[in-house]
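anyone seen this seq b4? input:
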Amino acid sequence: PRSIKISPRLTGNPPMKSGPHKDISFDLEPLIKAYWEAIGWGAETGIPTEETLRALELLEMVSPEERELPA
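predicted toks r here
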């Protein structure tokens, strides 16, 4: 989850010099965090929250250690 790798070109880095996307770029990080929050994952960790696991009836399948931020 936190290891998502996306080419900088997809976010406009460096920005295009011509065409409809000329000089347009954006920060992908806030979008990723908002998406994870919307689906019930920790915005900082990219790991499903305890509440999400409980709602999906998966909490008993994941040990407390696995619910923590990976090292």
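The mean pLDDT is 86. Residues 28-38 form the longest helix (11 residues). kinda curious what u guys think
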